[in-house]
Amino acid sequence: MSALRKAVYKKLDPDEKNDRVSRAIDLFLIVLIAVNVLAVILETVAAIEARYRDILWLIEAVSVAVFSVEYAARLWVCVEDPRFRDQSRPRLSYMLSPMALIDLLAILPFYLGFIVQMDLRFLRVLRLLRVLKLTRYSSAMSMLLEVFREEASAFFAGFFILIVLLVLAASGAYLAEHQVQPDKFGSIPAAMWWAMATLTTVGYGDVTPVTPAGQLFGSLVAVVGIGMAALPAGILASGMADRLRRTRAELAEELREALEDGVIDAAEEQELEDLRRDLGLSKRVATEIRDKLLRDREATEAGLCPHCGKPVRHR
Amino acid sequence: MSALRKAVYKKLDPDEKNDRVSRAIDLFLIVLIAVNVLAVILETVAAIEARYRDILWLIEAVSVAVFSVEYAARLWVCVEDPRFRDQSRPRLSYMLSPMALIDLLAILPFYLGFIVQMDLRFLRVLRLLRVLKLTRYSSAMSMLLEVFREEASAFFAGFFILIVLLVLAASGAYLAEHQVQPDKFGSIPAAMWWAMATLTTVGYGDVTPVTPAGQLFGSLVAVVGIGMAALPAGILASGMADRLRRTRAELAEELREALEDGVIDAAEEQELEDLRRDLGLSKRVATEIRDKLLRDREATEAGLCPHCGKPVRHR
Amino acid sequence: MSALRKAVYKKLDPDEKNDRVSRAIDLFLIVLIAVNVLAVILETVAAIEARYRDILWLIEAVSVAVFSVEYAARLWVCVEDPRFRDQSRPRLSYMLSPMALIDLLAILPFYLGFIVQMDLRFLRVLRLLRVLKLTRYSSAMSMLLEVFREEASAFFAGFFILIVLLVLAASGAYLAEHQVQPDKFGSIPAAMWWAMATLTTVGYGDVTPVTPAGQLFGSLVAVVGIGMAALPAGILASGMADRLRRTRAELAEELREALEDGVIDAAEEQELEDLRRDLGLSKRVATEIRDKLLRDREATEAGLCPHCGKPVRHR
Amino acid sequence: MSALRKAVYKKLDPDEKNDRVSRAIDLFLIVLIAVNVLAVILETVAAIEARYRDILWLIEAVSVAVFSVEYAARLWVCVEDPRFRDQSRPRLSYMLSPMALIDLLAILPFYLGFIVQMDLRFLRVLRLLRVLKLTRYSSAMSMLLEVFREEASAFFAGFFILIVLLVLAASGAYLAEHQVQPDKFGSIPAAMWWAMATLTTVGYGDVTPVTPAGQLFGSLVAVVGIGMAALPAGILASGMADRLRRTRAELAEELREALEDGVIDAAEEQELEDLRRDLGLSKRVATEIRDKLLRDREATEAGLCPHCGKPVRHR
């Protein structure tokens, strides 16, 4: 039983990229999720829903069946996962992990439809959260999430400023415009719709200040806004770039160790290739790193400083 | 008396994160500010104001009372603050510091309402500036302000260019459009509303050029604009990233000193943890820095270059 | 024959910047492409088409003739190109290369017009793809494409998130608004038009939520959107900056080798100049790199550490 | 005569920050330019023009008089400027320099008004170019221009892509929409107005696609657009950050030299302060650089590696 469980765990692990069955399962699930999401989207178009109701229902039924089996299987094998294995209640910890909750959310609406008397339309749309199941298969996506966690404090500072600006912008616009346009700037919450559209530079234009004071204030808000609103994005992008740089350094470290004995044998080659894929680096970048290292090594052997390529003299 | 003052100072200091009473006071004030700001916002909605007038008034009264006590207390203990202690007139310097002025601004509208005969609505909205009181409690926020001060010259250069572009864009659009749309582009100040919306890429669309010349010029302004308008944000984000890097270097420096004797004892551990929190770094980043340092140390002891991991040979 | 082919290859190569004939051919083709694209654009204006039909037709005829000759010539000489020379079927590999496909696309619409019975207007507009022929002549453009390839994984993660957000935003807005505005938010695909305009911060304003729930959700989408939508751009820009830095390092490496013997002779000077132009670096930057290197060299000869300028002491 | 010329040159030089007369002249000119630009802007408002015509005329007359004298004076003393002194025709080179042309443009409209019979309104607005005279006084502004020149190749690649995208986006939208909205998408030049608004994310909303095909294509354009349009800005911001970093390194180099003898005397202190101001660095950053250097120095003297603070062992 334990051996079977271990085997199933390996097949379901999205990181097992060398196993053909595992890769096939991944691909099948990715396609199924994509088809499913597309079906839910198209179902909301009345004409399509009327004509293809049966096919859409079939897709839904098959999907829920597969996802249910997947959920049960993952729950069964989660005790093999090193992240949960050593915890006191591995199955419960797994069930409360983000990915497991997303998996549950993907099948729950279907079963709820039978039990609870709810707005069916709402339940149907809830199925779109299945799109989040795709995050399991994107290594770059998980890197982004890591960066997000790392730079979280700077990130939230940006959002905090955004909220403060939102409150101040809305109150200023309310003061300037509420008498001229009581329907659009009649209260601060109403004015917030305008403030949001301006600070994020979306600028729908359905609500705009018309008084000179309102327009002057609006201009100020827009100018300050572009600086502040782009901040979280800038921090995230810069953090992402930093992370990529560190990832490259990590690969370089491994390479160095592999090069210790002067040659990279086939086993080391495979290991490095796996690492490269894990880190989500392109082949080109990996080759560049390796070339630099080899150059450094030669320089050191020739008695040159590996940093600057000049002979190290000792007087 | 002086001992009591010192004790109160410690309780009010938002950096005292190990004292439970201090943390409770901080939390209470943060919640009160948030509730208060929400109340002021909702008060401008006529329906809510009519129904919950009494509760809103109660929130206001309690808030002003608490904020008044807080202001008096902070003014009393400010002579304990190292930033003001050594100045010739510590209390006056404190009263003129940005945070104290914000604290004053938070209670002034209420008292002014009794004394001066002013537009009450204006006074009420002024209370929203209380949201700025929150800045005291955000360490990341203060980092942002520091970056802002550091990169100020580059920042203002960006804004200066924005103003120059605004003037030139408005005058060009005025020339091209003032005869066809005298109501919208009748003067340069009027055209500035369009220029601002275009340069910041907000693009409300309430005012747009309609002549071919105006649209050609508008396109040019928009294309140049996206480059210029995003500049301050880019500089700020890049400065923030740079700052984070330097902050990490600072922590590494401290770590190195703690590691001097080969081990990190409990006291040093606590000190480093405090520093990490002060610098606003995530635990993950701190651990990464420490691991790198330990690796370097081992390498040095093994006679390897700490920079490149290769043996340092002396011929 | 082979000698002629080699000569023609050299004349057509956009990298041969020291040959006057080659440069003249490049310039002629660039101007022809630009004139041609302009002609196609103006042809769609009814008034211009009616008046200048003959001239426009002449431009088209001459262009197609020249481009056809160019295509044939390039196909003939491609066996001289080191990228295709050593392949088993060099001509076929060349024909399937992106640049050759673009070249084919530039002449195909004209010939197709005679053969197939198609919507002529569509064929005409297709000619605008000729603008892509210009990419051959922009060295900076190819650098951008390289960066794009390098950072591809981070880039696609950004786009993947954008699509997930698009689906979630559209479904949320559909739920909140489809009963009030069935014409604009009647289905999720319809709501996607709004979601796209909001997440990219374009914000046309032709479709906007009007219910409080829709506006609240819309605000959330806009705030999250600015962070996510700017991500690919930020990654690309940061990658571009990184690439420029590495390019400079490459030039520095070459310089160092040239400086090995202490002087840079005329041949080395020419070589470095060629390299600089290849790398797309400005003269100013190149001079800065050289100055730094020379300073380092002097320092090393004076027994100073090239990294910090202080004497290297050996005790 | 030559001595007087030299004295006037020094007074007019905006970099002479230690001379009180020179500073007073700078300030006077800056205020005059600002007042003048404001006057020109307000003059286009009919109500203000009618009421304050005399004052506005006076401002104009005084400004032109001062600017004329300034232009003549600068032309006279330009032979003292090291940038023009050594050229064969220093006065002509100066007259053709950007700053001199801007100075000429600032007075020309006034004199042209007497000579040529032109649209007066156009001439008046032309006076707004006087705002460019301010660039002489902003050191950060000149740094931005330098960065612009350095990253020019990457920058123009970004703009080239923008133009290619503009052409392709406009032609696609023209194909999809010209039959449904012939007034808005009737020709490619007309469709370019929409394409520009979308690619720059301005999104006025006066022109939007309405067909499903047009909206699908529009969404694609918007998504690709945000990546591309932000590119020039990102490159510029990243280049600016890089420049700031190099500027700091330059200051560090100077500091190191000043520290060679172990102390910084008053003359060196003044020199460093001048350099810091020239480089546009904040005091805080300068102090940080100095502290790091002093720490390094102490470490070296104690026989520690200046890079990692650990003892340099020689076995």
Automatic annotation (TrEMBL), chains A, B, C, D:
<feature type="transmembrane region" description="Helical">
    <location>
        <begin position="55"/>
        <end position="73"/>
    </location>
</feature>
<keyword id="KW-1133">Transmembrane helix</keyword>
<feature type="transmembrane region" description="Helical">
    <location>
        <begin position="217"/>
        <end position="238"/>
    </location>
</feature>
<dbReference type="GO" id="GO:0005249">
    <property type="term" value="F:voltage-gated potassium channel activity"/>
</dbReference>
<dbReference type="Pfam" id="PF00520">
    <property type="entry name" value="Ion_trans"/>
</dbReference>
<keyword id="KW-0472">Membrane</keyword>
<keyword id="KW-0813">Transport</keyword>
<keyword id="KW-0630">Potassium</keyword>
<keyword id="KW-0407">Ion channel</keyword>
<dbReference type="GO" id="GO:0008076">
    <property type="term" value="C:voltage-gated potassium channel complex"/>
</dbReference>
<keyword id="KW-0631">Potassium channel</keyword>
<dbReference type="GO" id="GO:0001508">
    <property type="term" value="P:action potential"/>
</dbReference>
<protein>
    <submittedName>
        <fullName>Cyclic nucleotide-gated potassium channel</fullName>
    </submittedName>
</protein>
<keyword id="KW-0406">Ion transport</keyword>
<feature type="transmembrane region" description="Helical">
    <location>
        <begin position="93"/>
        <end position="116"/>
    </location>
</feature>
<keyword id="KW-0812">Transmembrane</keyword>
<feature type="domain" description="Ion transport">
    <location>
        <begin position="23"/>
        <end position="242"/>
    </location>
</feature>
<feature type="transmembrane region" description="Helical">
    <location>
        <begin position="154"/>
        <end position="176"/>
    </location>
</feature>
<keyword id="KW-0851">Voltage-gated channel</keyword>
<dbReference type="InterPro" id="IPR005821">
    <property type="entry name" value="Ion_trans_dom"/>
</dbReference>
<keyword id="KW-0633">Potassium transport</keyword>
<dbReference type="InterPro" id="IPR028325">
    <property type="entry name" value="VG_K_chnl"/>
</dbReference>
<dbReference type="InterPro" id="IPR027359">
    <property type="entry name" value="Volt_channel_dom_sf"/>
</dbReference>
<feature type="transmembrane region" description="Helical">
    <location>
        <begin position="27"/>
        <end position="48"/>
    </location>
</feature>
